[in-house]
Structures are given as C-alpha cells and as structure tokens.
Amino acid sequence: MPEQQLILMGRIVGAHGSAGSLKMASYAESLAVFESGRTLVARSEAGNETAYEIAWVRTQGRSTLLGLKGVANRSQAEALIGCDVFLDKTTLPKLEDGVYYWDDLIGMEVVSVDGASLGRIESILQTGSNDVYVIRQGTRELLLPALRSVVKSVDLTARRMEVEVPEGLE
Question: Predicted confidence band at 2 (pLDDT cuts at 50, 70, 90)?
C-alpha cells in the first residue's frame, strides 16, 4: 500500500450544536472530497494527529458543517477547534491538466518570463472570480492573479512557476 500523502484541506473553526458537529473552513474547491467514509486526519497545533472517518458534510448558509464518527458531543467537537484537516492525496480525484492542489503550489519558486526571480508562493487567496497567489521575496510582496494569461507554465517536479507579470503589478 502506498504511503499516505497528506494534503491540507481545511481547518476546524468551531463546534455546532450539541451532537458533535464541527464548523470547518474548507480549502477545497468542492466539498465532494469530504465524502462519507473517507478518512480525515485532524492535526492539532501541537502536532498530534488523529484519524477520523467522515460521517457527512454539508453547507449551512456560508458555513461548512462536518460530522466525524467518534465525535458525538459538543465537548469532543470543541477539542478539535484549531486543528488543521488533511486528506490522503492518493484518495482524491485526479485533476485536469492545468489545475493544481494548493499544497502543490505553496512554496513554489516563481520567475518572470524573462527569468527574474519574483520569490515563492507564500499563500493563495480565494477571491471568487479567480485565486490570487501571494508571492514573497524578503519584505516584498506581490499579488498575482491565477489566470492563464498570467501563469505561463508550472513545473511540479522542479517546483517552479513561470509568469508574465501584468503591467502595473511589477
């Protein structure tokens, strides 16, 4: 069996109700990755990891609610607040060409089409219309839209992205 490749998919941000339901900030484009029966790993800030089987997931208004087998009351749910949520990447659907998991991009070196180093992707922001890459080099921060017109190539093996910086963002 291949070794687990954990990928960060969200964070537990609260408890909901008295039956152990959790509020989760999901980093996934679709909640389908949190399908019932899939194993989720919750990692505390101290680095302790516990595996849970997903019982259900749903949205309620703007919140994502999650039920885990073995988390049956509010105090058990509250103990998980602040935990990062990981899934085994090998169990996730294969992505289309040109689509990447954030975990694959964060930390990647970014260079302009003329070869100038722009820094590394520190984080990714969801804006609704498109994601925005936060690129940092020392104290300099550059926000680049994740658009095909900007991102010219991504090499996951070399951990390098080539971009054409839009005029005015240099």
Answer: very low
Angstrom CA distances, 93 to 11, 15, 32, 100, 156, stand at 21, 28, 10, 11, 17
Q: Cα 89 vs. chain centroid, distance in angstroms?
A: 11
Rounded Cα gap, residues 24 and 127, in angstroms? 18
Please tell me the pTM assigned to this model: 0.70
Bridge partners (DSSP) of residue 91 are: none
- Alpha-carbon 117 to chain mean position: 25
Residue 94 carries which side chain, given as an amino acid letter? K
pLDDT in tens, 96-126: 888 888 888 999 999 999 999 999 999 998 8
Between the alpha carbon of residue 48 and those of residues 44, 77, 133, the distances in Å are 5, 16, 29
How confident is the model over 56-104, as pLDDT tens digits? 999 988 889 999 999 999 999 999 999 999 999 888 888 888 888 888 8
Cβ atoms within 10 A of the Cβ of 121, count? 22
Asked if 146 and 161 count as a contact pair (C-beta separation under 8 A), the reply is no
Question: Phi and psi at residue 47, in whole multiples of 5°?
Answer: 95, 5
* Cα–Cα dist 28/9, whole Å: 6
| DSSP bridge partners of 52 | 40
* Nearest alpha carbon to residue 156 among 80, 101, 82, 88: 101
